[in-house]
Structure formats: C-alpha cells, structure tokens
Amino acid sequence: MADPFQDVDAAGEEFISAFADSMDERQSDPTMEKIVSKYLGRLEFSEDSLTVEVGCGAGAVTRRIAEKALPGRVIGFEPSVGFVNEAKARVGGYDNVEFVVADGASLPLDDGAVDILIMHTVLTHVEDPEPLLTEARRVLKSGGYMVVCDADFSKASLGNMPNDPLDACAKVF
Q1: Are 112 and 89 in contact (CB under 8 A)?
Q2: Exposure pattern of 56-93 as b/e (b: 16+ CB <10 Å)?
Q3: Alpha carbon separation from 68 to 78, 86, 97, 162 (Å, rounded)
Q4: Which of 150, 148, 145, 169 is nearest to 159 (CA)?
Q5: Strand (E) positions, 65-113?
Q6: Are the C-beta atoms of residues 160 and 166 closer than 8 Å to each other?
Q7: How far apart are the C-alpha atoms of 122 and 120, rounded to whole Å?
Q8: Residues 119 and 147 sit within 8 Å (Cβ to Cβ)
Q9: Are 151 and 29 in contact (CB under 8 A)?
C-alpha cells in the first residue's frame, strides 16, 4: 500500500480533514504527549528565536511548539497545500506561528537562519531522507538544535474514523 502522505493533496479534502483530526488525536495520546513534552522541555527558546517544523502536517505539533516558544517565531513547513490550509484553520490564538507550503528539501530560508529545527514523524514518510537532513544542516545556525522524532509505539491504527471496521478487524487479527 502506498503511503498516502506522499501526495496528500491528491487524496482530497475529506482525507485531509480526517487525517488532521487523527493527527490531533494522536498528539493528545498520553504516550505521544510525553514524548513531545520531553523533547520540547529540553529546548531553550528565546524572544528572537526562529523555530521550524519540517513536515508539519495540519499543525498539531507545531501548535505545541508555538506555545512553548512564545514569543519566539515558529514556522511550520509542509508540502501539502491542503494540510497548510487545515493548519491555518486550526491555529487558534497563536500569533507567533505561520504555516508555509514548502518541501523540506528546499526551504525558503537563508543559510544559518534557524535556531531549532524539528522533524516530528517526517523521515518515515520520505523515500530518501538525505536531502531533508542536508537542508536542515544548511538552514540551522551554528550551535542550533535539530530534533528528529519518529516515534513508533503500539498505537498503530488502520482506521481513519471512530469505529472504523478495518481498524476493528486489524485489532482482532
């Protein structure tokens, strides 16, 4: 089965909305909450810092970053126009965050512009992670931080809505 995150926009608005809901739900899972809290708690954000999330999806983790980084600036980059639109609609009251359509291998940033770069569950969705890592190195300031989190925990689901029959069958199997 092809990874639907390879071309999210081709999957359509219903998929985008459903997956945005599931990403928000996954972010609120106690295991994921603990993982994100732990790595965000180890980072130091300053008033004039720039933090970037590459592959932000609909912004579930980006909103957490924005809350922690206040008043520092946060940019969520995502190649899917649909996910960026969804992220903008879900941003809430965070005025220190913006969402931009961009590929993680070609970020519209100057060399050495970023204090912290985060890739949360991104590298598992790309066929070749090297261009993303090379680009991260280019945009990071000397002494900047890069966080890569591709957490794999026993929360796997095949469903994309509550009581999805496919997910129920997979759990029984």
Answers
A1: no
A2: bbbbbbbbbbbebbeebbbbbbbbbebbbbbbeebbee
A3: 20, 21, 11, 30
A4: 169
A5: 73-78, 97-101
A6: no
A7: 5
A8: yes
A9: no
Query: For residue range 82-120, what is the model confidence (pLDDT) as tens digits?
Result: 999 999 999 999 999 999 999 999 999 999 999 999 999
Res. 151: pLDDT tops 90: no
The candidate with the shortest Cα–Cα distance to 114, out of 43, 24, 29, is 43
Burial (CB count within 10 angstroms: exposed 0-12, middle 13-18, buried 19+), residue 125: middle
pTM exceeding the 0.85 threshold for the entire prediction = no
Q: Determine the Cα–Cα distance for residues 157 and 173; give it in Å rounded to an integer.
A: 12
164 burial (CB, 10 Å; 0-12 / 13-18 / 19+) is: middle
Q: Token pair of 125, please?
A: 């969705």
